[in-house]
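Subgroup meeting minutes
Present: P.N., E.W., G.H.
Scribe: E.W.

1. P.N. recapped why we're keeping a running log of single-chain structure predictions: easier to compare across weeks, and new members can see raw inputs and outputs side by side.
2. G.H. added today's entry (188 aa).
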Amino acid sequence: MGSSGVKQQDLANSGYAQNAATTYGGQASGLYSSLAPALTAEAFNPQGFGPTTLAKMNTDSQQSLGGSNAGVTGQAGLEAARTRNAGGTTAALDASSQSAQRQNSENAIGTDLQDANLEQKQQQEGLSGLSSLYGTNVNAEMGEQGISNQALNNAGQIQNPWMSLLQQGIKSGGEVASAGFGNGGAWS
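Output recorded in log:
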């Protein structure tokens, strides 16, 4: 393949790289139209568990503690019936009720803390995702444009063999002409 074929191949490679860059740009646009709003929402308005899940978590805790407290109350009632001493279980019932309320409060605080941690994690994931999208797409597009520029540079550096022959002919003709006119304008 002659140098003109190499030059044509470099120009074709530049075109392929430009097409790939355009494709990456289009894909980036498509990704951004769907992912960027979702990641932006996650970064700037993280939802955590969400109100429904938080309510369910708190209700589950309250039901569990309520069931435990009811079990203690039932057991105390049985004990009072067996011993015929209803006043003997009052302290145990009060302690059980206080313990259940304290645990319920701790569970609610724990749920809120878990929710806050999840919101912070979602926020960081959103920001990280946005940064990654930007970097991936820009780097791919810039890389393809760099390949295109390199191919164009290579094509510009290839010497046309016909031009080289023409330049040699002009140079040789000039040398012949100056040698022939070296004797005062007459051919030797």
